[in-house]
Every structure is written in structure tokens, then in C-alpha cells.
Amino acid sequence: MNQPFTDLQTRDLQYVWHPCSQMKDYETFPPIVITKGQGVWLYDEQGQRYLDAVSSWWVNLFGHANPRISQVLSEQAFILEHTIFANFTHEPAIRLAEKLVALTPNGLQKVFFADNGSSAIEVALKMSFQYHMQTGKSAKKRFLALTDAYHGETIGALSVGGVGLYNDIYQPLLLDTVRAKGPDCFRCPFQEEPASCHAPCSQFVEEQLKAHHQDLTAVIIEPLIQAAAGMKMYPPVYLKRLRALCTQYDVHLIADEIAVGFGRTGTLFACEQADITPDFMCLSKGLTGGYLPLSVVVTTNEIYSAFYDDYGTMRAFLHSHSYSGNTLACRVALEVLTIFEEEPVMEMIQRKGQWMRALAMTAFNEMPYVGEYRQIGLVGAIELVADRATKEPFASEARIGYQIYQRALAKGLLLRPLGNVLYFMPPYIISEEDMRMMIATAKEAIEQFFHERGEYIG
Ligand SMILES: *Cc1c(COP(=O)(O)O)cnc(C)c1O
């Protein structure tokens, strides 16, 4: 860390403003210049390699520079890279939409293309609102979202987000959103066990629906895992209950599967585990296996029909992005879905999930400062606490996660924690040997950090 910056690092810091970063931190911790990726590994200028345990912000499924995906991308680039998507179309988008309708829960039948996760959220919010305006329910103008929700960074998406770190300062700009306390299984106020839980905490969202349903157009939720909040996991029964409540109160359900879609939770979509169909499903991240920005909103014929009329009635959904339905991205997404069809991907996720659980339980369960290890599918999370008995959290100013992250990087592991939560979300192709390295190195980094603080007694 005390080495002089390389030429590329110096030029980066002169010209580039990085996402989700305090740029002053980079003075002592310069950006790592990645020159090559292969499988789960990223290589820097010095040839040091890092195991990408976070799938490069949750997007990568089948490894970096995957030969099969790179091949079709390159072929497509010589045929057609992109075309205007109003009045024009292309086979990759058509085939992709067809497959998505076949794979998503029953009843989702129309695919609207956008180009990143936040825009998909904006699309779903706008569609839900406009649907109600055009079906004689113009009082329905507000959204209901959960505490600790994360749906992206654009103004509409931030409005339904509930992570203060990202949205506090923008409060004056945000939509007036109804907020309900979400599930909090690690610190469950009802002392339920996940296996036998009947989601008594759904009463919070029920109370808000009861009070506000006449004003509410949609409830938006991250199914099974509130990811950015620190991989907060909750059982399918909550989703099932929420679906029933939304139907009862005539409010749309928007399932934001941007982080959890495409196998992450052990089923192709998280909603499957609750056997529900939302009114809108937003997908992005894994959709292109981590290759290109693309997102979709999949919705029902009923919603689509409320927009379908003669032009003069002005009921159309006049939303677009320059790169809507980008051909290269659609071609890559199609290949990703073909991999799911042709390879036993879901079995692989099950098997690797079992290895990960066994390794992680042994490594972390008895460690001081580990409040809990939790896992769904191929997402595992360690919640660090100042006191195991009371579950008292570490103060966020202590930046515990950030310091462990730096130590893990020096050992060749890319973790990037969320506050006090370290998590593993590796590409599905990770080998057993690399998974062992990932768990062992994370443990070493945690131990080293607490040793250095002079506190470690384990
Ligand atoms: C990442 C994410 C988004 C936003 O997607 P971007 O492509 O980063 O705009 C929205 N919702 C969830 C659940 C996410 O994890």
C-alpha cells in the first residue's frame, strides 16, 4: 500500500471519479488496475490475482472472459451491434423476450427493455402509476417500500430505497413514499425461527396497506434478500403473505429481482420459492452474465392492455432509452439463458451452496465478533457484531468491514463488505479449491484485523 502509484493509477486519480467511493480514500488506497480476468480471478498490473468473491457487484455468473459468451459477443458485433428499438426490432431481443416469458413466473407475458437496474425500477414505477391513472384509479399516486430496501440510485429508485447512507441527503428531492418496517430475521422482534416462521412481521406492511391502500399504486420489494442492506435474508412465507395482501388491497407488487434473479437464491427466480407471480418483475445484473448493461421489466397482459389503444387516446407508455434493447447485450443474455438450459446450472448452484455452507459454518460459527453466518443459494453473509450476546453492532464510523476488505485484498481476495457484513457471492463456476481459499482467506483477514486491534482472543 506504500508503493508509489503506477502511471495508470496516477492518471486514473487525475481524471476519474469512481462510483460509491470517497475519493480521498484513494490517496492511501489507490485503485487497483485490472488488466485481465479469467474465471473467478481478476489480475492486476503486477500480475497479482484476486478471487472475485462478489461477482464484480453481483453481475457475474459464469466467470470473467467466459469463452462461450465472448465468442457470441464477438460474432454478433460483426453482424449488428445496435439499432433504434422503436418501430425496429431484431432477433436477439425477440428470442430473449420469448425465453424470459417462458422462464419467469406464470402470468408474466410482456417484456420491456431498459439498460440498467435503476432504469428498470423507474419503468416499473411509472408503468404502475400510469396503469392506475388509465384505469380510473387516479388517487393511486404513492409507493410503499420497506425499511432497508435498495432499488438503485436514480431519483425514483432512491425514493423507494431505505438505506440512509445513499438517500438521506437527497430527501428534499425524493417522492413521498410510504415506508413499512421490513423483516429483520437476525434481530427478529418476534423470536421466530426461520424454519417455522409465519411472518408475523408482515403485520407492519399490512398496517400500512390498510391505512394507505387508496393512495397506493404499488409495493416494491427485494424478494428473499435485501442485498445492499447487508444481505438481510428472510423466508418465502413473507413474500407469499405480501402477495396476498397486495391482491386484497388492490395494489401492484413489484419484485426487484435485479440482485437475486438468475439462480442466485437456488431457484431461477426468488419468487418461485414463494410460488407467487408479481405484477412486475425487474431483472438486470446477472441477465448478461456480467458482460453488458441491460435490464428488463416483465409484466402481465392485464397491465399491458391498459396502455393498448388508438394513438390519439394518449395511453401509450412513452418511455425510452437510447440503448433500449441493445443488440449485443440481448445476444449475450440469450447465450446466458442457453447456458442455463444446456448445462446443469441449478444443480451446480445447489451443490456449491452446500459446500459453501459447510465450509463457512466450520470457519465462522464459533468466531468472536461473528453474530451470524447466514446463507441462501450462493449468497453467504457474515454479520460482525461488537457483542455476540446482545448482537450490538459495531459503530459504522469504525469501518470494520472496510479494514477487513483491505486485508483480504492483500491476500488475493476481493470481498467489498456492506458495513459490518462480509459476504460471499461468487460466480457459479467457482471450483471447490477456490471456494476453500475464499473462506480460509476471509477468516484470516478477520483474525488479522482483530489481532492488530489487540482484541482477538480466539
Ligand atoms: C443493483 C441493484 C439495483 C440497481 O441496479 P443498477 O444497474 O446498479 O442501477 C436495483 N435493485 C437491486 C436489488 C439491486 O441490487
From TrEMBL:
Compartmental location: Cytoplasm
Residues annotated as binding substrate: W57, Y150, K285, S320, R416
E.C. code: 2.6.1.62
Cofactor(s) needed: pyridoxal 5'-phosphate
GO CC, one annotated term: cytoplasm
Subunit (UniProt): Homodimer.
Function: Catalyzes the transfer of the alpha-amino group from S-adenosyl-L-methionine (SAM) to 7-keto-8-aminopelargonic acid (KAPA) to form 7,8-diaminopelargonic acid (DAPA). It is the only aminotransferase known to utilize SAM as an amino donor.
Identification of the protein by name: Adenosylmethionine-8-amino-7-oxononanoate aminotransferase
Organism lineage: Bacteria, Bacillati, Bacillota, Bacilli, Bacillales
